[in-house]
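Handout, section 4.2: multi-component inputs.
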Amino acid sequence: MATSVLFDAPGPKTVARHRVYTVATYGGLLLVVAFIAWRLQQTGQFAYDLWEPVLTPSIIEVILVDGLLNTLKMAFSAIILAVVFGLVFGMGKLSDHAWVRWPCWLVVEFFRAVPVLLLMVFIFYQFGGVTNGDRGAYWSVVAALALYNGAVLAEVFRAGINAVPSGQAEAAYALGMRKFQVMTIILLPQAVKIMLPSIISQCVVALKDTSLGYAIAAIGLSTVSRLVYIEYGNQLQVVAVVALLYISVNLVLTGIATWIQKKFVGEKNPIDLTRAGNMDGGQNTGGGV
Amino acid sequence: MNVVLDNAGDIALAFIYTLSLFVVAGVLSLIFGALLAAARVGPVAVLRKAAAVYVTLIRNTPLLIVIIFFRFAGPKIGLTFSFVDIRVADIRLNNLYAACAVGLIVYTSSFVCEALRSGINAVPLGQAEAARAIGLPFGGVMSQVIMPQAMRHALPPLASVQIALLKNTTVCGALGVFEAFARMRGLTNDFASARTEIFLAFALIFVVLVEVLSFVAYRLERRWRIA
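Output:
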């Protein structure tokens, strides 16, 4: 184990001990897998009837087109709106005028702390979502996610702009630029580079949260899967397939984020909001999970 | 405001469910997440891989899907939690509650594991090397040098995860536990004209709870700060 500095390179006794642990772990994992397989067998979950729906082209089409595609559309619309919301309020929080700064701070704190589900249902019933069928449900999900993720992104933008070395802004002011010019020409272009990985990780959060559309029957992966398993009674199989779809899409997004981070930012992310330094003024409200 | 005040008892009961879910899932996810983190940084390669696979799979699955698994797919293979039936005054913790709580624990512990691991990774290499150079064994390195520093690094993300957990308990409301979200939906259905007040009341209670947690975490961080 030369790769870790936490422990020494093991001697012969420790190697033997680790070998025992390894065998025990393998045994334990095998037992768990075997028990699950046995349970599935016992309860007849391998029966072809239960798997048939998720292997039938027409149902696969429903899951992929009505489910996955709508989920992706919802996540995409929500992120676009969230970026706009985040930019406006993130810059608002950096304003020199207290009467702009405080309302922006209040709005951001509110939407970061309120559970998305509460927001979603409220928007759905209060702002006509319920009377407009599928479109109403769709836009209720998008609006709730845009507000929540926008509030999180506002924090990201603020931190990103603050992470640009202060000499940059000072030099720009010395050249005689106005505040707006300094922000748009000097600070934002440099900050975007630092913020990109956080924005993409937020896309993963938004994508996962689209599943909450279940509560208001917005057509998406979670709602469609419910319709399928209620019709065929194959909860286990459908949940497995849907989870796999979510995991694949999220892994692709995470991969892109890692690649961008390596390419533009380097190994360390200066504004990782889940890390130390985000606690000033007790502003940590659990973004990113 | 009348609707909110008239139903204050119901709302309080709903938030007792929410908080009980939060406490149960919070404590157990911390324990389980710590075990996972130990497996992920430990010397046994298989355990490291197994824990990594678990974390990757669960982290990328929406919480709703995880809970649906325990709530609807679990019973299909005999995982019914029917042995859980606890009554305390007006609060009844049944099998639905248990399924949702287990979903929350499974989901949150993967994030706890990542927070702890990132804390351990944030300790500079030189610390571990120096500890080993003065002759500390693995246990000593961990308990005397690494963990005290790692805990300080891990505290902000851990707090973040627990705050997210508090907000995530609302998902259980969509799947049969009568906590804050379910109660809010019930009230807004019964009193459609007072919808905004009801929403604001629930939202503000959540804001207060989140700010309290956030403040506790901030104070802990201040207290444990070394320099």
